[in-house]
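Format notes (please read before filing issues)

Several people have asked whether sequences and structure tokens are stored in separate files. They are not. Every record keeps both together, in the order shown below: the sequence lines, then the token lines. Line labels are part of the format and must not be stripped during preprocessing.
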Amino acid sequence: MLAEIRSLNEECGVFGIWGHENASQITYYGLHALQHRGQEGAGLVVTDGEALKALKGEGLVNEVFTTEKLSAMTGNGAIGHVRYATAGGSGIENVQPLLFNSTTGSLAISHNGNLVNATQLKGHLERQGSIFQTTSDTEVLAHLIKRSGYQDFEEKAKNALSLLKGAFACAILTEDAMYVALDPNGLRPLSLGRLGDAWVVASETCAFDIVGAEFVRSVEPGEFLVINKDGMRADRFAYPNERSICTMEYVYFSRPDSDIDGVNVHSARKRIGKQLAKEVNIEADVVTGVPDSSISAAIGYSEQSGIPYELGLIKNRYVGRTFIQPSQDLREQGVKMKLSPVRQVVNGKRVVMVDDSIVRGTTSRYIVTLLKEAGATEVHVVISSPPIKNPCFYGIDTSTSGELIAANHSVEEMREIIGADSLTFLSVEGMVENIGRTDPGSKCGHCLACFTGEYPTDIYPDTVLPHEKETV
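Then the structure lines:
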């Protein structure tokens, strides 16, 4: 399917609101803004102060939620989730938020990330009698909360969160409160906003813009927010570690109109595109970006190099997410359905093709072929990130080391495989320095594990990769 073609996928997006009479409708629009973070499933849970009600399904946001269904979801607090399902992980049972009912109170959880100690925690809980209904890390957190020895729910939740290792941005909903938490390394993005008297939380600030909310601040690593009828109160479940936001949020995953830690994503991509032009000297006639995430970097490359930018590739936005083809030949046809070269732009031209990453190399090879078939005399591929040589254990589907082309081939070998006339990757230093951060005095502030192999947390021997988790 098209997800296999792109080869790099975010796991999900989280949204929550408290104190708004149209909480479910606001959540719908918030999730719509986060649709790029997951297209396989969507859901929301709403509270009216007495009970939690869930609405979820497989598909896009506007397919799962209808006006009629939303009108029945009344309440002033809600959390929502969009999900990218990995191989074998499709199924309504894994669509979030997950809702858990009990005689001692119900709770719902939306979670973005991946726990590196989920296997150990799950085994421990099962030995205590827990029975798991899904393959999601989210259910582990719910069992930990319910089995905590504390009496107060806040203490139960903080105790459970303190046991988690890895990446997690969570929104937890009960009948009378919403709780928000971010892992001690801050590996995933999470922001806090206001909509009138209501509090809003989202994986990206673009969701605030679409619902008319005002950005307040980023949720801090290790922070635990309590939001209820008394307002918002900030607490902690853990001391923060060095900030290690996923660098690929800036390079690829987040929408260009989002801000992460005070840095606009589009502006960051333009800067790294300019840095690419400084690090390489290519004689060419035209610069084009692979839509959509690479366009900003391509514009930056063009401005710095003086080579004109053109729309050399057009994305077909009407190829459905359910376009599934089982064979390799038909998957290649799927690329042609998704991307089309503009022949009049590239014919007879030396083309600089800017892309954000190379994972398996299949997509790059297809696109280079498309451009050359359209008449490009040369295709020079420049990548606005370093080579991805290591798998991600924190919620990004980057495959195993054996499937990563950069982990098994030199740059020259990769160039030959994709059929490019030249291949250049951005340096790690150039990427970090040009993304720009509001905390320039920090050591780094980024998770660079997929490039450098230096993981900000311990990785356990039986840690399961995100794309493998739902097949075991």
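For reference, the curators noted about this record: The radius of gyration is 22 Å. The CA atoms of residues 258 and 264 lie 6 Å apart.
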